[in-house]
Design a protein that fits this description.
- It is a single chain.
- The protein has 313 residues and is an alpha/beta fold.
- Helix content is 39%, strand content 18%.
- Helix 5 runs antiparallel to helix 6 and helix 9 (282-292) runs antiparallel to helix 10 (297-312).
- Belongs to the ketopantoate reductase family.
- InterPro entries: 6-PGluconate_DH-like_C_sf, 6PGD_dom2, ApbA, Ketopantoate_reductase, KPA_reductase, KPR_N, NAD(P)-bd_dom_sf.
- It is an enzyme of class 1 (oxidoreductase).
């Protein structure tokens, strides 16, 4: 049973504003609040007429708590001190656009979505703000209206997209207080590519075949996973991110094992008839491959299959 409403607001500490409250956003908002850091979530204006209960959060250990987390709305966002964008990749630009002209210069924007190619668009929208890219391997599930479960502890890394972001290394330390681990990496693009490789391998296959991640460990998908990694490695090398297919496959299979009971975000999106992040994941890979004249037929096939299945759904 929920143990009662908890709100650890400390006004002297800069407040985190989380834009978006999907599965991962709800989990991060809960963990930040639990760590004593003032936190609020920023929702789209049409949610103003929606009943907003406390956030029902279940930890990795199975403990349930009810958090009273402040809510705001993008139409009147109020003062934002640090913005943590938790929407899906395909929603980032639409979610941030209403804040153009309302977000004070110098406020850091932290992006924590799957895929690549979005941060560069955010820099154009907010030329006077530090833009920070993040990758995380935490697992999260939303099972109801403001009901969230932390399903897997992972690593989180932040790094600079523009020069102004380099002054905000301390954000990683503050996230670490909530997440157990978070680090700063000046070469965040390499970590983004490594995460992209994992997503290219796991997400389309689990979504197309309606599988838990762990089901990719069998021989049925061995050849496909191997070829996906060969193609991604070719593109990464051309992009100046030297790696091998063997190294990428090892990373993929480690994640498959660690998240064996989880459903990938793309699988969840397909099941819920939501738009997937395929364009920011495999679509980004295809665009990079085309620039370098590299053939990636297996990834092309997976991309096309997701697109076709999404249209049918």
């Amino acid at each position: 049973m929920p143990s009662g409403l908890l709100n650890s607001r400390q006004p002297s500490t800069p407040q985190w504003t989380l834009l978006g409250c999907g599965a991962l956003g709800g989990v991060f908002a809960s963990l930040l609040t639990q760590s004593g850091q003032p936190t609020r979530v920023l929702l789209r204006d049409h949610h103003q007429s929606t009943l907003h209960p406390g956030i029902d959060f279940t930890s990795l250990e199975g403990h349930t708590q009810l958090f009273a987390i402040e809510r705001g709305f993008v139409g009147k966002p109020g003062q934002i001190q640090r913005l943590l964008v938790m929407t899906k990749a395909n929603q980032v630009i639409a979610a941030l656009t209403p804040l153009v002209g309302k977000l004070a210069a110098g406020v850091p924007i932290v992006l924590l979505h799957n895929g690549m190619g979005i941060a560069e668009q955010v820099v154009v929208l907010f030329p006077h703000n530090p833009v920070i890219a993040g990758v995380t391997s935490h697992g999260a599930m939303k099972s109801g209206h403001f009901v969230f479960r932390h399903t897997g502890k992972g690593e989180t890394w932040l790094g600079p997209i523009n020069e102004a972001a380099r002054a905000h290394v301390a954000l990683a330390d503050e996230l670490a207080l909530a997440l157990g681990q978070a680090g700063w990496d000046e070469q965040i693009r390499a970590r983004q590519w490594q995460k992209l490789a994992i997503n290219c391998a796991i997400n389309p296959l689990t979504a197309l075949h309606k599988l838990k991640n762990g089901e990719l460990a069998g021989p049925r998908f061995a050849d496909t996973l191997q070829q996906v990694c060969v193609e991604v490695a070719d593109v990464m090398c051309a992009e100046g991110m030297p790696t091998t297919a063997e190294e990428l496959l090892r990373r993929v299979m480690t994640v498959v094992e660690l998240t064996a009971d989880n459903y990938s975000s793309m699988h969840q999106d397909m099941e819920q008839k939501r738009e997937t992040e395929i364009d920011a994941i495999t679509g980004f890979l295809l665009a990079s491959a085309a620039r370098h004249g590299i053939a990636v037929p297996v990834n092309q096939g997976l991309y096309q299959a997701i697109k076709e299945k999404s249209q049918v759904a």
